Amino acid sequence: MASANILMENESQHILPKILPKLVIFDLDYTLWPFWADTLYDLNYKSDGKGGIIGSRSSDKKKLYKDTRELLEILSKAKIPIAAASRTDDPPMAKNLLKLFDIDKYFSYKEIYPGCKVDHFKQFHKYSQFPYKEMLFFDDEERNIQDVSLLGVTCVHVDRGITKREFLDGLNLFSRKENKK
């Protein structure tokens, strides 16, 4: 079980729990960014140099949710592998967005294709060799939470994108479940 002494700033300082997952998985659309990748039709997105991207029209700007980059960095510093699980109908666009937002470097595993999220998790298990009970998953769709939780994965529903609070709550939920064993 991994341990980290990384501080998070929120209303006050928080220390990550001592018992951490071996793999943290994030959905992409409406979990890390506030839009669906498969609804973007402008193939000319470029980095805006400020952490966002801009389309061919200057009014077409997209950003990550406010806490996304910081949370990925926290996991990276704690040496916890990160995975992306997305059911998008446009996998090339989702993969391109990871690169454009300069967050692709954080993801050790990517399962980005249409279908049931359970299939994504079977692949994560196969390639990482981590048991499902050692995984923590964040997603905005309740159906994905219900399906994946049946595998034994600790799942957290995020209503309007990942926040520091939801992230820490998810880590604490995982830690409490592991402490009971």
TrEMBL record:
Q: What is this protein called?
A: Magnesium-dependent phosphatase 1-like
Q: Which Gene3D superfamilies match?
A: HAD superfamily/HAD-like
Per the UniProt record, the source organism is Oopsacas minuta
Q: Which domain of life is it from?
A: Eukaryota
Membrane-spanning regions, if any?
none
A single MF term (Gene Ontology): acid phosphatase activity
The record, for InterPro entries, names: HAD-like_sf, HAD_sf, HAD_SF_ppase_IIIC, MDP_1_eu_arc
